[in-house]
From TrEMBL:
CheR-type methyltransferase domain residues: 12-258
Listed name of the protein: Protein-glutamate O-methyltransferase CheR
InterPro entries (UniProt xref): Bact_Chemotaxis_MeTrfase (IPR050903), CheR_C (IPR022642), CheR_MeTrfase (IPR000780), CheR_N (IPR022641), SAM-dependent_MTases_sf (IPR029063)
PANTHER family xref list: CHEMOTAXIS PROTEIN (PTHR24422:SF8), CHEMOTAXIS PROTEIN METHYLTRANSFERASE (PTHR24422)
Signal peptide: none
Organism (species): Mesobacillus maritimus
SMART domains per UniProt: MeTrc
Domain of life the protein comes from: Bacteria
Length: 281
């Protein structure tokens, strides 16, 4: 329920206005949010309406069509940027123990982190691969639709306050060094070492509209698909399937699954209760 709804609130009219807003975004700017989960989009649309001191969805559409700054603010609202280093440590521990031995058998390794947000999981993966001795032969492709969060990811700069929490995650994920060895402290922030960034390619990529750009040994897209409706999830899963090489590994978030898709039988689960799957067909 959205706060401050008018007395004449009409749910069907609201749905029409949101449809027109998303159609306008796509037709005029090429941003396609038409198949994102409706409840999530609705919540963010009303947040932006109140923040802009507007009174209607139609008013927001008018403003974003004529005010690029308002458009950027709405795009930031639509972007899902909740992340942290070694998030769900058991996932990374399983990747270290079950997936890395497979990656060692290849002369070179390509990994795609789709929806990388501000990059904490990208550096987590780089650290893990460096400790396992295969980072030098690996190229990590870190992509996101949001250019602003990619700038943060490229910089490798994060809050010092988060490092204690991240250090605990690091050890739970099988880390065998000291996390502080991988960054330097600058005031209230930290900057991750350049040697972690040397094999990372940061690039803008839209999972909704863009196609595959390489063949990968592993793809991680964690806690992104939960914001898509079923038809869009199916489309993105097809993109990932076509982007994985034979025996490639797909990693999902803990609330995401393959079971409902039409390609579920083309994967095998790598480890019980961890969302890691190997392409077998």
């Amino acid at each position: 329920m959205v706060n401050n709804q008018p007395d004449d609130y009409n749910e069907e009219l609201e749905k029409l206005e949101i449809k027109l807003l998303l159609d306008g975004l796509y037709a005029w700017y090429g941003y396609d949010y038409r198949n994102y989960a409706y409840s999530s989009i609705r919540r963010r649309v009303w947040h932006r309406i109140h923040a802009e001191k507007l009174s209607s969805i139609t008013g927001l559409l008018e403003k974003i069509l004529h005010d690029p700054a308002c458009l950027r603010r709405l795009m930031a609202d639509f972007s899902i940027n909740v992340t942290e280093m070694f998030r769900d440590p058991l996932f990374f521990l399983t990747f270290r123990e079950q997936v890395v031995p497979m990656l060692r058998t290849y002369p070179s390794v390509r990994i795609w982190l789709a929806g990388c947000s501000t990059g904490e999981e990208v550096y987590s993966m780089a650290i893990l691969l460096q400790e396992e001795g295969i980072y030098d032969k690996t190229k990590i492709y870190a992509t996101d639709i949001n250019a602003d969060v990619l700038k943060v990811a490229k910089s490798g700069r994060y809050s010092l306050n988060q490092m204690r929490k991240y250090t605990n995650h690091y050890f739970q994920a099988g880390g065998n060094e000291s996390l502080s060895d991988y960054y330097s402290v600058h005031g209230e922030g930290v900057v991750f070492n350049n040697d972690l960034r040397k094999n990372i390619v940061f690039a803008q990529h839209n999972l909704v509209t863009d196609k595959s750009f390489n063949e990968f040994h592993a793809i991680l897209c964690r806690n992104v698909l939960i914001y898509f409706d079923k038809s869009l999830q199916e489309r993105v899963h097809r993109l990932f399937y076509e982007s994985l090489g034979s025996l490639g590994v797909l990693g999902l978030g803990d609330k995401e699954a393959l079971g409902y898709t039409d390609i579920a039988n083309r994967y095998e689960e790598i480890a019980y209760n961890q969302k890691l799957y190997k392409k077998v067909k």
